[in-house]
Structure formats: structure tokens, C-alpha cells
């Protein structure tokens, strides 16, 4: 069973700026390329961090009406409001992934680090791409027949060696329904779990019977 890796989903043409890029140059770059963030890199292409629209927004908040009573900014927000170069504004260190990572690995890192995008680097830690939350969601655009074929061929036949005629697989909008029977009861949760790991699967419902309750065997 093959999982799509980050290299297949990432954007390879990454918009970058150097660490000494000026505030207005960063805004101009974001606008010209119609992106919400840029990678900050050193002279040899190693990522240092990311400057997003959110990193730049404190500058606008800092220019509010001083006569109005506004909540005091957090220390880091104050630093960014006073920053003028990418190295002062960026979120750092850069949170990076490898091109051969699976979607699940990238998603877990995004969640753990509370970031919206990951910079993708090679073995030399040189920037080769960027992957966003939206990119990861592309796996759910796989068509139902492709998902069904992977479940019947890779999961049931090649991995679990099940009789192809014993289990029917129906897929509708990524929702998988399994009907039929297996020899051993212990196989049912294994089948369900493996089906859930197939790229593009949204939900799995199984209605499987069994011939032998091996959980009760001595």
C-alpha cells in the first residue's frame, strides 16, 4: 500500500527573501506573488524561518488611534511591530519536513508546532519546497474508484490475502462500506484500520461477519 508523499503535494517554486529584506519589500513580494507567506533563507538556501501576513500585521495594529484604549500587545508582538527586516519579523526557527514524508507525518508536525505550512528541505537542509494545510487536503480529491481499487487490491488481496469475492467494497465520496465475511474475527479491526489509512478515505463502515471467534480460543 503506497502513501502519497510530501514531494508529490508540495509547491516547488518557493517565494523567498533574504534575512535583511526590508518590511516594505516583503509586503511587495507577498502581493506580487499572491502568497500569504515567504520563506527566509540564508546565502546558500538554508531556511531560517517564515514571514507570514500574520507576522506583519502587528505593524498595522501598532499604528492605531493612540487616543483609543486598546489592549497592550504581547512582548513578541511588540518586537514584530518594531521590526523592519525579515530576520526580526520571521517566525523562527523554520519548521521543516522532508520530501519523502507521508501526509500523516506532515500533518502531525503541523499540529504539534501549530503552524500552517512546512518548509521542505533535502539532505543538505537546502530548501526545495513548501507544503501547506491546503496541499495536504488534496489527497481527499482522489476519486472513489481509485480508492476502491487500492482497498481491494493492496489491502485485501496483497496485504491480507483475503478472497476477493468474500468482501465487497463500496466507496462514495471517500466513505468506505465493507460487506461480507472473513474467517477469523480478529481480522475485522485490522481490515478496518488498514482501510482508514488509505489516502483519500474519509470514513469506514464495516458489516463483516466471521466464521471463527479466535479471540475466545485458548
From TrEMBL:
Residues 74-87 have a biased composition (Basic and acidic residues). Pfam families: BON, CBS. Gene3D superfamilies: 3.30.1340.30, CBS-domain. The keyword tRNA-binding does not apply. This is CBS domain-containing protein. InterPro entries: BON_dom (IPR007055), CBS_dom (IPR000644), CBS_dom_sf (IPR046342), Diverse_CBS-Domain (IPR051257), UCP036990_CBS_BON (IPR017080). The keyword Zinc does not apply. Keywords: CBS domain. Residues 10-66, 90-146 form the CBS domain. Residues 62-87 are annotated as: Disordered. Residues 143-212 form the BON domain. It comes from Streptomyces yanii. It comes from the Bacteria. SMART domains: CBS.
Amino acid at each position: 500500500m503506497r502513501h502519497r508523499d510530501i514531494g508529490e503535494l508540495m509547491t516547488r517554486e518557493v517565494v523567498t527573501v533574504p534575512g535583511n529584506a526590508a518590511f516594505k519589500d516583503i509586503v511587495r513580494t507577498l502581493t506580487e506573488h499572491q502568497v500569504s507567506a515567504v520563506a527566509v533563507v540564508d546565502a546558500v538556501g538554508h531556511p531560517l524561518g517564515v514571514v507570514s501576513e500574520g507576522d506583519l500585521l502587528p505593524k498595522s495594529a501598532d499604528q492605531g488611534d493612540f487616543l483609543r484604549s486598546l489592549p497592550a500587545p504581547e512582548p513578541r508582538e511588540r518586537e514584530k511591530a518594531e521590526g523592519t527586516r525579515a530576520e526580526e519579523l520571521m517566525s523562527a526557527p523554520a519548521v521543516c519536513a522532508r520530501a519523502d514524508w507521508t501526509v500523516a507525518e506532515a500533518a502531525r508536525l503541523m499540529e504539534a508546532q501549530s503552524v500552517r505550512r512546512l518548509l521542505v528541505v533535502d539532505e543538505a537542509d537546502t530548501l526545495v519546497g513548501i507544503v501547506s494545510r491546503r496541499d495536504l487536503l488534496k489527497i481527499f480529491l482522489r476519486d472513489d474508484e481509485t480508492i476502491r481499487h487500492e482497498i481491494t487490491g493492496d489491502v485485501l488481496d496483497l496485504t491480507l490475502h483475503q478472497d476477493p469475492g468474500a468482501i465487497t467494497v463500496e466507496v462514495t465520496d471517500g466513505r468506505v462500506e465493507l460487506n461480507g465475511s472473513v474467517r477469523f474475527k480478529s481480522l475485522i479491526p485490522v481490515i478496518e484500520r488498514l482501510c482508514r489509512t488509505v489516502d483519500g478515505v474519509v470514513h469506514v463502515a464495516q458489516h463483516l461477519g466471521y466464521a471463527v471467534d479466535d479471540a475466545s480460543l485458548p
